[in-house]
Amino acid sequence: MRVLFVGDSMTLGSAGDFTWRYRMWQHLVRTCETPFRIVGPRTALHEGSHAYAADDFPEEARRHLAGWGLGWLHHAPEVADAVAAHRADTLLVSLGLIDLGFYTDPVQTEANVRRFLLAARTANPGLRVAVLPVLRNIRAEHDPGFAESCAHFGVLLEKAVADLSATDAPLLLASAPSDWNVARDTYDGTHPSAEGEHRIAASFADALHQAWGIGEAYRRLDTE
Questions:
Q1: Residue 105 CA, distance from chain mean position
Q2: What does the alpha-carbon distance between residue 217 and residue 70 come to, in Å, rounded to a whole number?
Q3: Under 8 Å CB-to-CB from 144, ≥6 apart: which residues?
Q4: What homologous superfamily does CATH list for 2-212?
């Protein structure tokens, strides 16, 4: 199994972050019986930093396709090349907040989701993809219009995943953390705190376990 993390700044992380990618890697090391590798064209955090909080996060496992300020709009043209170059067969994708906040409305964002998924399949027709719904941030807490856009996109995303899923190329919509709390789960209203990192990783881990039999249900091992 060759896993590619795709995301925006919430997936990328900044200097001093553990990142949810680290939490997910830890989980797979502990519970995944299938041999796996984390793949992707990049390893750095925001602004090129390599100052991850975890000393035990190996260089190879830090790989990803994430970027500060990048959304479905930006990843759609590059995902096929990344999947092909790194022979990815499993994508874990957390995108949408930046699109809705700065670039596209819900309908346009959903169109870019479809572009992204169809492009990725040109590189690997049997690719399986798990997608996380948009997580509320501080703007959605205080801007009803933005909150409505996020909710509308959530409905469209669910339909797109259902429309495009196939037996030989399954798509999966992971469940967002039911108790996501901006004050507790982010450190600045958007980017995940250590608590939020665990909750994002748990959403993906539980989805992979329940839908595809990969690993086990998520279980925390630390108090960070």
A1: 20
A2: 30
A3: none
A4: SGNH hydrolase (3.40.50.1110)
How far is Cα 63 from Cα 125, in angstroms, rounded to an integer?
22
3-state secondary structure of 17: coil
Helix (H) or strand (E) holding 118: helix 106-123
Q: What amino acid occupies position 173? A: L
Residues 175 and 204: beta-carbon distance below 8 Å: no
Using a 10 angstrom Cβ sphere, with 0-12 exposed, 13-18 middle and 19 or more buried, the burial of residue 162 is exposed
Backbone angles phi, psi at 106, to 5 degrees: -55, -40
Three-state DSSP at 194 gives: helix
What angle is formed at CA 78 by the lines to CA 176 and CA 41, rounded to 5 degrees?
85
Residue 184 three-state SS: helix
* Residue found under tokens 């259902």: 162
Per-residue pLDDT tens digits for 116-160: 999 999 999 999 999 999 999 999 999 999 999 999 999 999 999
Q: How confident is the model at residue 221 (pLDDT cuts 50, 70, 90)?
A: confident
Residue pLDDT, tens place only, 8-67? 999 999 999 999 999 999 999 999 999 999 999 999 999 999 999 999 999 999 999 999
